[in-house]
Please model this.
Amino acid sequence: MKMDHIDRALIAETQAGLPLVSEPYAAVAEALGMPEDQVMARLRSLKARGIMRRIAIAPNHYKLGMTANGMTVWDVRDADVAELGARIGALGFVSHCYERPRALPDWPYNLFAMVHGDTRDEVEAKRAEIATLLGAACRASDVLYSKRILKKTGLRLAKGK
Model:
């Protein structure tokens, strides 16, 4: 999983997004002073090694009208959380899904799944679908609705790291 200085420079150059030009990988290559085919090969390697998950568009769900956004939280049996979490994460309406440690006695939830919708009713219907999938493995749940976006970026490497 080791990265060299070129991998880190490539991530730093692309972490805020690809340039909005007709040949974005050529522009990245030019900025880094390396051939475009090397940029492509390194991106493929970063993905194959699991350092990068994907290169994808990240639409602003608020501008798409999806203003009812809820982080659903679930208390799922520990023995089932990995398998069920993977199934929930694969649902098309779940943007991200995490297993987290409980903070007992106040916070019993260990599975988190972000659900987006146009209305709270839509989010609640999706939440019900998750509850059905979890079945008896789920002991409790709740949903925390977003009020506003405070940060909307992915992980950023510090300059020079």
Q: What stands out?
A: The chain has a mean pLDDT of 90.
